[in-house]
Amino acid sequence: MLKFEVLKQCKKSRLGVLHTAHGDIRTPAFMPVGTAATVKAMTAQMVKDTGADILLCNTYHLMLRPGAERVARLGGLHKFMGWDKPILTDSGGFQVMSLGALCKLSEEGAVFSSHLDGSKHNLTPERAMEIQYLLDSNISMVLDECTKYPCEKRAAENSMLRSMRWAERCKNAFIDRAGYGTFGIVQGSMYPDLRLKSAQMLQEIGFDGYAVGGLAVGEGQQVMFETLDIVVPALSENHPRYLMGVGKPADLVGAVQRGIDMFDCVIPTRSGRFARAYTANGEINLRNARHAEDHRPLQADLDCPASQTSRAYLHHLVKADEMLGSILLTQHNLTYYQSLMQQMRAAIAAGNLDDFVAEFHERQARGDIAPLVKT
Fold first, then answer.
1. Average pLDDT, whole number, for the chain?
2. Comparing C-alpha atoms, which of 209, 269, 375 is closest to residue 31?
3. CA dihedral of 62, 64, 69, 70, whole degrees rounded to 10
4. CATH entry 3.40.50.10610 includes domain 3-264
5. Would you please indicate which residues are annotated as catalytic (active-site) residues?
6. Where are the domains of the chain?
7. What's the predicted TM-score (pTM) here?
8. How many CB atoms lie within 10 A of CB 100?
9. What is the pLDDT of residues 178-213, one digit of tens each?
């Protein structure tokens, strides 16, 4: 069982804290993605230094390698990866469904072939809960079916109803203990009535938190926000609300305004490995020649070694294909994301989130790219 407290509300946005067996999570919160028990290019201490309270690991990848039973024998994920703060595990449903022809769904669950060695596996709701228990995840996600976008309504409804049946089986299989919990996932594609029905069914089952899944799948920001405008008011005010797989900074800001408390996304880490930096003044591509003689730090007001590194040096590392470039840009991006969450928490506490949002968009639009330097 998890305890969630809403400390302050500013219109629809909330300042809160989620208490777990491995520490408190300040909300709104962003979870770095450590798919295979590692945030790519980062040590556990480096992730802590960005200000993260929690990270996400993935059931699908860990059940295949090194295996949930092995992780359990080694003391659980926290000990295994040297991370003593909370961990949320995705049930693996999205990854399994994305295997296409390698996966066959039934009412029982999903039978699939490993992308690593072709071995056969059976992921049922009960097995998904068992794996997450063995991993010692603080927040276990229910197994759900992820529909593609766009999706015909009848298919979306059938998928959603099956996900709700799986959610109930997950709840029954979950081993409840202090400081641990499980979240249900709202599905229903972009159909308002299906989304509302899903939210109602999940709350009748009863979970420690509620996630909105099936977004950031190509529908665009406006449709995503319209869906949140429908779904979030239908979710319990006494439980955390988690938007899965989102997103860019503007997505996070807009979702917090709509009452979302938790996020995860690979964007800041993946972008760091592809020479892109997110800053308070917009997105920067360090491959561009205009940065070759730009001595300015990436973002001077962030207390992070990577953020204090000159753009010229980062450009050099990227062009020279040095791994340090990926490390520094990943570190910076995660630090910026955590800074953004901290600023939103402070704005909610002060009751002036709208002012912060207006300034955020103004700075993003203005940018701070230096004139192109001929080389």
1. 96
2. 269
3. -80
4. no
5. 90, 264
6. 3-264, 272-366
7. 0.97
8. 7
9. 999 999 999 999 999 999 999 999 999 999 999 999
